[in-house]
Amino acid sequence: MTDLFSKFDPLIQQREALLATGVTDPFSLVMEKVLSPTVAICNGKETILLGTYNYMGMTFDDDVIAAGKQAYDDFGAGTTGSRVLNGTFDPHRDVETALREFYDMDHAMVFSTGYQANLGIISTIAGKGDYIILDIDSHASIYDGCKMGDAEIVAFRHNDIEALEKRLKRLPPEAGKLVVLEGVYSMLGDVAPLKEMVRISKENGAMVLVDEAHSMGFIGEHGRGVAEEQGCIDDVDFIIGTFSKSVGTVGGFCVSNHPKFEILRLVCRPYVFTAALPPSVMASSATSVRKLMHGSNKRAHLWENSKTLHKGLRDLGFTLGTETPQSAIIAVIMPDLEKGAMMWEALLAEGLYVNLARPPATPAGMTLLRCSLCAEHSAEQVQDILGRFERAGESDRDHLTAPFTHNFGTSTSAATSGHLRCHGLISICVPAWRFIFHAR
Amino acid sequence: MTDRSEMFDKLKGLIEPFNKKGVDLNDATTFAGDLEWDSLTVMDFVAEVEDTFDIVITMNMQAEIETVGQLADAVLKLVD
Ligand SMILES: Cc1ncc(COP(=O)(O)O)c(C=O)c1O
What we know:
The structure holds two protein chains of two kinds.
Chain A (H helix, E strand, L loop, with lengths): L8 H12 L10 E6 L2 E4 L2 E5 L12 H14 L14 H14 L3 E5 L2 H12 L5 E5 L4 H9 L3 E5 L4 H10 L6 E6 L1 E2 L4 E2 L2 H10 L3 E5 L14 H4 L8 E5 L9 E5 L7 H4 L1 H4 L6 H14 L3 H20 L13 E6 L2 H13 L2 E2 L1 E3 L9 E6 L6 H16 L35 H5 L6
Parallel strand pairs in A: 3-14, 5-6, 5-7, 7-10, 10-11
Antiparallel strand pairs in A: 1-2, 2-3, 4-12, 8-9, 11-12, 13-16, 15-16
Helix pairs in contact in A: 2-11, 3-11, 4-5, 6-7, 12-14, 13-14
Chain B lengths: L3 H12 L23 H15 L5 H4 L5 H12 L1
Helix pairs in contact in B: 1-4
Pyridoxal-5'-phosphate (PLP) binds next to helix 4 of chain A.
């Protein structure tokens, strides 16, 4: 008998080798208590959280929690059914209304997660004979959406406008085309040149989908994301978002002005063949989305935090993923996984949690300590965080600077997120879709 | 119309800068096994081939290409 698990052997060995060096397993942290959006108890120790997607700190918002509790009382614990059968309760409709208001768009469709929103929308709208043109650093859920559908997949170099344009021009003019982009790429925290890319896509007859998972609530005048900030949101056909980041709950969605959008509720399998989210989650999410419409003070503070941390880390000598702070994500580039894991552990010992990200989740085979800021981090906490980085770095000076060379701007990295470094030209990207251990 | 050996030679020329180990190239040379390319190299190389011939090699096609010979056949079809 062939052991079906033998394909995981290289990963098992890598993991064992890493743990043999004595570091704590970075992928099995448990938060014993969560005290606030920015502080939890981990391993019995009070720890500042700098590796969550709780950008706007909504998880402990009084109104958000109260709305959820009320919905528990009014609607019970769960839906026990699909959105298209018995699973749509009043709070599900209400959160879709809140999203239409938030984005000022005609249609909103809520999925169980953002992952499923990408999976469902992409695989359903791009069919046989159509083309999906995507940034090579796209999130795993985008790759999986491609894999699930029947379209032809064309990748272009990360954030490279010219590479996108060339490929669009080479495709049959009459074929259906969907260009898939992200507002903020969550590994390095860099922003896409959406204005140019959306224009070029439209000029070449493509529809455009933008995943704004990491920008909702604090980028753009109304917090609608990078497309709003760059003034091209009206030309974006579909925006994908999630409740698991700024909104502080769980769930995913797509908003659109497409006149036929509602038909997707009948044909999109990851929407139809799964249970609807609990009413408590929907009520909390609706309240949170509405509060995010009026969060400008919090937004300003979040940006302040991002700038302070970026400058502070740079001054300490760390190599960062972006030249300037472009989002609420600041990525520290580590020389390799072992050093990354050691630094991660040293930070945890200092009472600071960051995300350790490594291939295939990361571009260009990088190991990253990803810091994500929260609007609820106080200015003092950010200074405290910098102090902890300094002390953790001192325990081994070598950790501070990565010899990794990285070009900024366009045409940076390559392979990526969804990608497993397998063997094969071919394995190139595809295995990527087949096989994701640790996508972001 | 490019004939096959001409195509093979052109591809050889494109592979060379990425052929760090100086592997001998023939129809059966594999990108993963023989050339030991990682996904980064593959992406750069595919882009190079695409730009040279003004074609698009979709990921669906790439999944089926394991050897230099298969690549030559695929590119020949695309430029036709
Ligand atoms: C760009 C992007 N899209 C989609 C998702 C999936 O979101 P969710 O956590 O709701 O499944 C994520 C988060 O991991 C993401 O980073």
